[in-house]
Amino acid sequence: MSNTPVTERLQQLQAWRGPRRKTASMGETVASLQRTAEKAHQQLGSFVEAWDELLPEELSSQTSVEARRGGVVHVRARSASVAWELDRRLREGLLGELRSRCSGAISRVQVRVGGQVRHDAVRRPRTA
In terms of pTM, does the model score above 0.90? Predict the structure, then answer.
């Protein structure tokens, strides 16, 4: 195919109007990660603090608050017995206490069993 002025012009227009390849600098990447972390802390921060205050250490250490979507807080429990204990406490009034202490609406807490219990959130040291 020969390069006529028309095809050259079309190639030039495609280069100008085509999708731009965005190269992210290190600063942009760090800023994006910071925004993501701030959003997660804003969504879960008060809940994690209340969770750690209201649950005994031996129970909260075996759980991980993972996400909050649409008023549902997702919690992972290390074993079925821990999940059962959490469910019992939530039904006996823990859910109401969490709702009163947290910003944002909490409709329910969904407890899942198994997997790796992560402690990504910064947990405050307990005072005796």
Answer: no
Query: What one-character DSSP code corresponds to residue 93?
Result: I
> Which stretch of DSSP H or E encloses residue 30?
helix 26-54
Count Cβ atoms within 10 A of the Cβ of residue 46 and give its class: 0-12 exposed, 13-18 middle, 19 or more buried: middle
Exposure b/e, 95-113, CB count within 10 A at least 16 = b: beebeeebeeebeebebee
Per-residue pLDDT of the chain (128 residues; tens, 9 = 90+): 567 888 888 888 888 887 777 776 888 888 888 888 887 777 788 888 899 999 999 999 999 988 888 889 999 999 999 999 999 999 999 999 999 988 778 899 999 998 766 655 444 444 54
- The CATH T-level fold of domain 37-115 is GMP Synthetase; Chain A, domain 3 (3.30.300)
* Order of strands, sheet of 72-77, starting from the edge strand that comes earlier in the sequence: 63-69, 72-77, 108-113
DSSP summary character for residue 67: E
Q: Which residue(s) pair with 73 in the sheet?
A: 68, 109
